[in-house]
Each structure stands twice: as structure tokens, then as C-alpha cells.
Amino acid sequence: MTYSKLFSGNSSELGNLPELLCEIIQYFRNDLSTLYSCVLVNKLWCRLAIPLLWEDPFSIYAQNFQFIDIYLCNLNEDDKTKFNEYVKQKLANIESISNCSIYRLLFKMFIENEGNLHSFEVEVCTSNDCNCLKDIMELILQNPNFNCNIRNLMFSIDVIDLNTNIFSLLKFLCFNCNSISSFYIGYEFKEKIFNQLNILETIHIIYCSALNSDFVQQIINVIRPFKLKSLILSHHPFQVESLQLLLQKFGSDLENFEFGKYNFSDESKQKLFKSIIEYCTKIKYFSLKDINFNLALNLIENIKKQNLNYLNISFDYYGDDYKSENLGQILPTKLEFLKLDNIKSSDLKKFLENSQDTFIKRLFIRTKVQRKYLDSLPYIKKYIMKKKRVKYLAILFDNNEFIFYQGSLSFNDLYTHFNDFCNFVNKDLVSLEDEVKEFELYNIKVQKYDIKAICEQLVG
Fold it and tell me: InterPro entries recorded for this chain (predicted)?
């Protein structure tokens, strides 16, 4: 009670010193429950605590979501009866019953309560999904006010029923929604789709498996101009010349580029990288996987002069030795995100030694070690922790190599070595509680090395 009164905001108390209160609340940065409590104290506390809670929301692993239960409790009496009947049929193992009924009930409830849809994601993987989509489309087409404010639109379609007229829905959304700023479609590319969607701000091509001359020419022939913001290439082979043509046409707006592992000659890669340097002047996110490292260094050194803020590098563990110290030397002075995947512990040490002038907000590392993962921690602490060079850190110590011993081993020794190997196949830094606490003393938040979480942070 005394503590609350002290900072209650009375002019005669310390409440008129928001700077002091702000500094104190900063100590609760990693204590989410305390921050949530601070929000409820008063307006001043709320104003200071909210930015910390929203600083990195995708790193918070919330549990026990119950919003679906809440939605279902708000169904009207008739719909509750229908829902209960559906549940009984499900419990009776009637295979012909699908989830379409629940989807329809939920959409109907949102519409009746004058819900406002901002993001609409459709994923169709089975014929049953097609049936559900037809039901939902009927409701959407009949209630234009429900979806007129959609900003983010996504279609991921693996299976489509000829009776499901997806193009009528797209046309309806095109003329009814004037706020769409993000549109994702995982479906066979149709030129007329983009010609109809005249309100798109940007286009993102993600994991396209048919980047050939025909595909590129279709994009170039699109009547209405658009900005190509993302080009994330899949592992399917493509024509280098086609990609060069695409970069020449749209590279000036490209911000996100990912290049995978391909069996191209170094000469072809060099030509492609030259096109990237020449035409792509706004790259913020860049990802390279298992490529010629010397070529990659030259490319990174050139694009860092632009807006490079997110860098993802996957090393070929069994390839030639990398000049990782050179990578550390050419990085920009500040990065929002850096991910080093599959890097040897020796290369990691060289990199950290030579990148001390770079501050990295989020650093994700998957490093290869040989049993004694703790050998890597001293230089990680020296060059990362004590230098306070990162804000969020995730490290996975990965040991996927068997260790061979000369001479004979007793069964107990063999069991001990095998048990050690099993324990250290994957060791996440976040599982080492004492180490995590030590990093927190330097205001570094240790996170779990989780690929899904990494992607969410990039999207966020």
C-alpha cells in the first residue's frame, strides 16, 4: 500500500517524478506479471508499462487461450442448440460430420454482432475445406459491411473445387474493400487476378516454384503498376536470366530477398549478385543459404550501404572454411536481426571477435559444437554479454556428430559417453537457468531458439 501511494501521482509525493518511476519500471522489463499489474495502477503507470509489454510481443509465449470458448458462449440459443447437436454427432464418431458447421456459426455470430474484419486468411488443403469455403463465401457475399475494412488478405489453396468460384470472391473483395494493403495468394498464378486488384500497395512473391520466363513475363505484362516488396525463392530450380529480368523491372522497390542453395556455377551466381547490387537499392531483409561465401561477402558489403536491417545466413557445415572474421568486419553498425545458422564454434568465435562495432537487437545462433558446449560460453559472454551488444539472444548448441574413441571401452564407459551424447545433441541456452540469469544482469533477454518464433518476429 505504501509503495503504491508513493508513486500515486500526488504532487506532494514522488509521483510527480515520472523519470524516476520510469527508471524503476524498467527493472520489470522481463517480469510480465508485474508489468500487467502496473497497467492497472493508474494512467501514469499504464503509460509507462504498456510500451514494455509491446516492445517484443511475439516473444511472449502465452498459454491457455480461451477466446474460442468465449465466442461459443456468446452464440444465440438456436445456434447453441445446433452446436450441441454437432458435438453429439462428433462424439458418436460420425465421420461424415465436418467442422464447417462451427465455422459457419462463428462467422454468423461475428456478423450479427457487427464485427469488423481486418485480416482474412483462407487455407484450403482438402475437399472438405472447399465445402467450408463455399459456406463462408455465401455469408461474406451477403454481408459486405462485415469485410469492407479488410487490410490483410491471404489465400493458400492446394485443392480447389470447380464449383467453388474463388474468382467471384476476389472480385467482390476488390470492389468492396478499399483498405487492402497486404495480399497473399498461394495458388496457380493468374495474370487477370492482379489486373483486377487495383488497390494493392505491394506484392510479395514467396516460395514460388515456377520462376521461369513465362511466369516473369506474366508479371511484367500486368496492366496496373505495383511494387514488388518481397522475393523469397524456393529450393526449386529457376532460370537465372528470368530472375535478372524480374530484378531489372521491380528491383527498385524490393525490400525482402531470400536466396537458397542452388546448383549454379559461381559465374551465374556472380551475374545474379551483380544484378541485385545494381537494381535492388532498398533491401532491408536479406537471406543467404549455403552459397559461395566469398561471393556472399561482396554482396553483403554492397547492400549494407542501403537499408540492410535483417540478415539471415545459413552456413554449409561441411564446406570450405569460412572467413567469418571478414563477415564481422563488413556488417553495418546496427542490425535489428541477425541469424547465423549451422556455424562452427571456431567460426563463431572469429565472427564475434571481429564484429564488436555492431549492435544487434535480436541475435539468433545455431552453432555446431563437440560435446563440450560450455567451451563456447566464455567467449560468447566476453563479446556479447559484457559488451552489451544485443538485446535479445537465442543460441542452440547443436551436436549431430558421433565421437569415435580409439581402444576398448567398458560397458559403463560406453554407456556414459552415449548418454553424454544424447544429452548434448541439442542444448538450448534458455535451458541453462544460471546462465540466463547472468545474461539478464546485463539487460539481455535470453529466448528459446525456435524457428516459428523467429518467423513471427520477422513478420511482426
Answer: F-box-like_dom_sf
